[in-house]
Write a structure and sequence with these properties.
This protein is α+β, with helices and mostly antiparallel strands. It contains 8 helices and 17 strands. The longest helix has 23 residues. The chain starts with a strand and ends with a strand.
């Protein structure tokens, strides 16, 4: 069963771990909604549908043709993401009346993990970093990679609708874009006067925008300076369905972990390690699409 980090936090009795998870998901539309499958071992081997089976109409007495689907077998390996946070014992003792330094330092480390995951979620490429995992930009290929044109082009609602229609089996569960692209989308919505973009509060009390009923998420690691043809001011918009059968996160049992290493030998400090064995899997390429060459 796949669980989001939000639900996983409810199952933990560790107050510090709950605080870390809440810090990680608070400002992340991806981590608030992306389900994670816990796997035992260092990776998951799964089958991605390559070609669907065919059927036909037959007359009485016809010979039936056999057709079966074909699959591509893939393996997603868990990557090790994390870091150590040291708290000086002198500062913790003399300044504990001002702020819990351990909590503050660990939360900042958790925020760094969130930023690194969101960056890799978009731009991860195992061809350039073996220790990482492939992100959406690598996973969305072929017919699922749309473009605004040879040299890019200004975003239009028609092109955004084409991106949405490229995700098969229902509407996408997220439109992920840069802040500049979101501003452009808002401008287009105001100009159309159709009310296709509306806002509402999520379970964290934050305002979320919806385009045609689809949540619009912002990722600060989607660059607005991508090169497409002769244009160097392009961005990308992603659309995906999350869940088993679509795009899911993979994690080791227990998910995000906070490990108290303890007092150090070489300095008067105690160490806490925040770590996450994590990866991504795309079970069906039709559940993810991207639109490149988006200009302001």
């Amino acid at each position: 069963m796949a669980l989001t980090l939000t639900e996983a936090a409810k199952l933990s009795n560790d107050v510090l771990l709950q605080g870390v998870i809440e810090t990680v998901i608070k400002d992340s539309p991806v981590l608030q909604t992306l389900p994670f499958i816990e796997i035992v071992g260092n990776g998951l081997t799964y089958n991605r549908e390559k070609a669907a089976p065919t059927v036909s109409f037959y007359s009485v007495g016809d010979t039936w043709a056999e057709s079966t689907p074909t699959f591509t077998q893939l393996t997603a390996t868990l990557s090790i993401l994390g870091g150590d946070a040291d708290v000086d014992n002198y500062l913790a003792t003399t300044r504990s009346n001002i702020q819990d330094l351990e909590v503050a330092v660990v939360q900042l480390k958790a925020r760094a993990i969130q930023h690194k995951f969101e960056d890799t979620f978009i731009n991860g490429n195992t061809d350039t970093n073996d220790d990482s995992f492939d992100g959406l930009d690598v996973l969305a290929t072929g017919d699922q990679a749309l473009t605004m044109g040879q040299d890019g082009g200004t975003l239009t609602l028609d092109k955004l609708d084409e991106l949405i229609d490229s995700v098969k089996g229902g509407k996408p569960e997220m439109l992920l874009m840069s802040r500049r692209s979101r501003r452009k989308l808002n401008s287009l919505a105001r100009a159309s006067g159709s009310g296709v973009v509306v806002s509402d509060r999520d379970e964290f009390g934050q305002m979320v925008q919806y385009y045609d009923g689809i949540p619009v998420g912002v990722n600060d690691w989607i660059s607005d300076a991508q090169t497409v043809g002769n244009s160097a001011d392009c961005s990308t918009i992603f659309a995906y369905q999350a869940g088993e059968g679509g795009l899911v996160g993979l994690t080791s049992p227990g998910g995000l972990q906070v490990e108290r290493v303890g007092n150090l030998e070489t300095k008067d400090a105690r160490r806490t390690r925040v770590k996450w064995y994590v990866s991504l899997a795309l079970f069906n390429t039709a559940k993810l699409a991207k639109l490149t060459g988006v200009r302001d």
